[in-house]
Amino acid sequence: MNSAVEARQDARRLKRNRFVMGLARGLAGALLFALPMLMTMEMWYLGFYISRERLLLLMLLNIPLLIVLSHRIGFEKTLTWREAIRDATVAYGIGVLASAVILTAFGLLKGDMPLGEWIGKIAIQSVPASIGAMLGRSQLAGNVDDDEDDEPEQERQTSYGGELFLMAAGALFLSLNVAPTEEMIVLAYKMTPWHALAILALSIGLMHGFVYAVSFEGGHELSPETPWWHAFIRFTLPGYAIALAISLYALWTFERINDTASVEIIISMIVLGFPAALGAAAARLIL
Question: What residues does each domain of the chain span?
Answer without folding.
Answer: 1-146, 157-287
